[in-house]
Amino acid sequence: MVAVPDPPLLALRGVCKRFGVVDVLTDIELEIHSGQVVALLGDNGAGKSTLVKVISGVAPAEKGVIEWEGRSVHIRRPHDARDLGIATVYQDLALCGNLDVVGNLFLGREIRRYGFLDEMEMERRTRELLERLTRRVPDLRGPVASLSSGQRQTVAIARSLLGEPRILLLDEPTAALGFEQTSEILDLIDRLRDRGLGVLLISHSMGDVKALADRAAVLRLGRNNGFFDVNTASQEQIIASITGATENVPRRPAQRESGW
User: Fold this and answer.
1) Helices (DSSP H) in 161-205: which residue ranges?
2) Are 59 and 17 a contacting pair, CB within 8 Å?
3) First to last CA, the chain
4) Are 231 and 214 in contact (CB under 8 A)?
5) CA atoms within 13 A on the CB side of 155
6) Could you say which of 70, 81, 96, 221 would form a disulfide bridge with 57 (CB–CB 3.0 to 4.6 Å)?
7) How far apart are CA 78 and CA 115, in angstroms?
8) In angstroms, rounded to a whole number, what is the distance separating the alpha carbons of residues 159 and 26?
9) ABC transporter domain location, by residue (predicted)?
10) Which of 24, 15, 46, 14 is nearest to 202 (CA)?
11) Residues 124-143 pLDDT 10s
């Protein structure tokens, strides 16, 4: 008997998004499985950030189907995405530089006891979470503005994990980092994959993609222009799809026994 693969954790089928009279996304297909890193690639203006906004509920799609574990769902607001288990870390990180690490993690969801902020419990949970991810944020009570770019990125990712999401959307997490800090963030993403999270990674770095991603989905001019197994596809093939040197618009991601 042939085993039936589990449905993807998240699947987009024919998703379209328009701003005014401009079609920004047209008939987009995408699948993300648990324990898998999918790189979302494309030139500037390809629609990558808009697609993240569609999935996160910031800019709902006008057409198409979004499936969660094989069932159709509606993501019309960020609250809908969070309820499903989707967390997003945007490129600007959205951290408050004057607050400390604990304050940033629990901003808007502070823990209270007897009507007062439970600073000890919030600090305990912050330390526990960061120790599971990394030990490179030494001062939890210093202002976030004093941390390195890599440490701030770690804090932003840690904040997104407080709600125990099942899919994490990362928009250019290593764009402003040096080599050592980039390695730390890639190691962190790798550990999140090992914990079973599905990760959608927007990146312009082919080195990061080849080092970390399982699959790559290429967008060009708001449309799919290729799906690749990163382990077998060459860098030249992927870049050709990004630049439009090759046109490849499959209706759905290629299937494998693992579900892809």
Assistant:
1) 179-194
2) yes
3) 19
4) yes
5) 31
6) 81
7) 28
8) 32
9) 10-246
10) 46
11) 999 988 888 875 777 899 89
Taking the mean position of all CA atoms in its chain, how far away is CA 235? 22
Distance (Å, rounded) from C-alpha 77 to C-alpha 55? 10
Decide: 199 and 214 in contact? Cβ < 8 Å: no
Residues 175, 109: Cα–Cα separation, whole Å: 29
Q: How confident is the model at residue 255 (pLDDT cuts 50, 70, 90)?
A: very low
Angle between helices 149-160 and 119-133 (to 10 degrees): 110
Tell me what pLDDT residue 3 has. Answer: 52
Domain residue limits, the chain: 7-85+165-252, 98-163
**155 touches 147 (CB < 8 A):** yes
What is the 8-class DSSP label of residue 100?
Answer: B
Alpha carbon distance 24, 6 (integer Å): 31
User: Residue 34, exposed/middle/buried by CB under 10 A (0-12, 13-18, 19+)?
Assistant: middle
Tens-place pLDDT, residues 55-103: 999 999 999 999 999 999 999 999 999 999 999 998 888 899 999 999 9
Alpha helices in 18-141 (DSSP H): 48-56, 78-84, 101-105, 119-133
Alpha-carbon distance of 209 to 235, in angstroms, equals 9
Q: Retrieve residue 24's tokens.
A: 């920004």
- E-strand stretches of 85-244: 86-89, 112-113, 116-117, 167-171, 198-202, 215-220, 223-229
Percentage above 70 pLDDT, the chain: 92
In the chain, the amino acid numbered 134 is T
Residues 6 or more apart whose CB falls under 8 angstroms from that of 155 comprise 93, 95, 101, 104, 105, 137, 144, 147
